[in-house]
Specification:
CATH topology: Rossmann fold
Distance between the termini: 30 Å
Number of domains: 1
CATH class: Alpha Beta
CATH superfamily: Alpha/Beta hydrolase fold, catalytic domain
Shape: globular
Strand order of the largest sheet: 1-2-5-7-6-8
Number of helices: 1
Length: 154
């Protein structure tokens, strides 16, 4: 089952019965991906930019963060007329898996309903990229104009 929610803090793509196999061989049985988008995707889908947040960041690079009320962590870079111009580009920022801002992580329930807690598997950059590809596939974006990051890179 695939569900999409408009949560107060951004979009969430919930993929029940979808599995993500990690580099260490562990499997995440249910995948939730929290993300935000800014701007509009053009007809040929050639203007999509993926922003990778820093290790301690989240999926709110621009505008007021609805959870904290503070400006996004890259507010000076993302927005109309800024270097990552949301009047020209469709900007996507996904909270990484293993984080604590909405995507599957230690506080998420496992298949039996109990939270992973300290049993949450080690996550690699490769795992994060595979999860980003899941989101891009669901958004039907085959290619990106640019991948950029404020910490863990792009």
């Amino acid at each position: 089952m695939i569900g999409q929610e408009n949560a107060a803090d951004g979009e969430r793509l919930v993929l029940e019965n979808a599995q993500l196999t990690l580099d260490n061989g562990s499997v995440l049985d249910t995948l939730t991906l929290a993300y935000r988008t800014y701007g509009a995707l053009n007809a040929d889908k050639s203007n999509a930019i993926l922003i990778c947040h820093a290790l301690t960041g989240d999926h709110h690079p621009s505008g007021a963060n609805p959870l904290t009320g503070r400006a996004g962590w890259w507010d000076n870079m993302v927005g109309p007329g800024k270097p990552i111009d949301t009047d020209r580009y469709f900007v996507i920022c996904q909270n990484v898996i293993g984080g604590c801002a909405g995507s599957t992580g230690p506080s998420s329930p496992r298949a039996d309903g109990t939270p992973y807690g300290l049993d949450f598997p080690v996550i690699t950059i490769g795992d994060m990229v595979r999860a980003q590809n899941v989101l891009l596939d669901r958004l039907e974006i085959p290619d990106l104009f640019c991948v950029i990051g404020g910490g863990m890179g792009g």
